[in-house]
Amino acid sequence: MKRIREKWQPYMLRPFIYMTFTRFILALAAALLADFFLSPGAGRPLKEPAFLLAGALFALLAVIAWLRLDGVKLPKVMMMRINPRKKPARMYGDMIDYVDEQPQVAFEDLDDGEKDVCILGADLFCCAAFLVLSLFV
pTM for this one? Predict the structure, then answer.
């Protein structure tokens, strides 16, 4: 826990929110699509098991991020961090328009420990959200 507090910085909030929102929406869409296409007509809906499975998957991903943060040597597949492709920067106007703005930190700009903290937090948040959803569906 101390290592997470040492690594967390306020500029990491934006990548954390983006990652959490993206993961939650994609997993929610996958679970609802699975329920829509795979549930039998008059049978039991698959929302609850799909949300429970998503929560368990996010718990597993959080454990992997925790192990990476602790420095455990894992297989190459578990050591990979998915880096979304960089979007081209489109700047309109003059450079003087952007002088007073603070530079925005992207996920790619973080070091490995900071990336692991963001991934761990996003996975834990999504895990908790899907477990709560599985209870109330």
Answer: 0.80
